[in-house]
Amino acid sequence: PVGGEPGWRRAKAKDQLIVAQEAFDKKDYALALKAARFLVKQWPHSDYAPQAQYIIGRCIEMQGNDERAFKAYQKLLQNYPKSVSYDEVLGRQFEIANRFLAGQRFKLWGLFPLYTSMDKTADLYDQIVKNGPYSDLAPQAQLKIGAAREKQSNFPEAVKAYERAADRYNDRPQIAADALFKQGVAYYRQAATADYDQHTAALAIATFGDFMALYTSESRVPEAQKMISALRTEQGRGHFENAKFYERHGRWQAAAIYYNEVVRVLMAAYQSAEQGK
Fold first, then answer.
1. Count of alpha carbons within 13 Å of 252, Cβ hemisphere only?
2. What would the pLDDT profile of 228-254 be if each residue is shown by its tens digit?
């Protein structure tokens, strides 16, 4: 009627939720979003407000605006922590973060897909860890932070993320093993960038060594051994170049030290290769 309430508004929160839920079930996301927002605004402390806020997040997600949907779910967790299924909401946030990790673009002003950002993606995963540090998804989210950092070739931050996962979830052997192995790989990749980094290579070798000692039956032990062998071979090459430099300049004692290092490193590489057979 003219001057009356719109057809989707109701006088009670319970009835308003029915309107929002029925519209969502019919995939009328615009109507469901309006109805749910009205409920949360009019009755923010009612028993029906948490479900309405969840419908808001689902509608925004179905409309293809993942970043805003993530924020809507975050509002749900912050405003109604005792009234929602934490695992379900965290799962929705996790799926959104996964899409951004896979290359989905963030939207400018929430409208135009414009850019990828591993910084923002890592922040989403970090929020998931903070939301449910003891949930089943938190360890996976922590590992994904490392994956996001590796995608932007920020290997020091990737190492920190994996190290944090290994420390926090050391009581979960599969997570801890995965984190330790990936930490070694991040060191390995960092050592291979630009000029060969002997210090980082040593950290990679030590990390892989810890991994093999702690998880002897892990299927990736042979792979770790191969990477150790490759790192030691590269270490030997670096020492050999240093030895030749000192030899050319008549620094015989320094040259001898580096030639001895070449022998030591290559012998260690050979032994590592033999163990991997």
1. 0
2. 988 887 766 666 767 787 788 788 888
**How far apart (Å, rounded) are the C-alpha atoms in residues 57 and 52?**
9
Q: Residue 14: CB partners within 8 Å, gap ≥ 6?
A: 48
Alpha helix (H) residue ranges in 43-172 = 49-62, 66-79, 86-101, 118-131, 137-151, 155-168
pLDDT at 245: 79
User: pTM for this structure?
Assistant: 0.84
Cα 247 to Cα 72, 234, 240, 241, 265: the distances in Å are: 67, 20, 10, 10, 19
**Residue 87: partners with Cβ closer than 8 Å, 6 or more residues away:** 132, 135, 136, 137
Q: What is the mean pLDDT of residues 45-62?
A: 96
**272 vs 41 pLDDT, higher one:** 41
Distance between start and end Cα atoms, the chain: 83
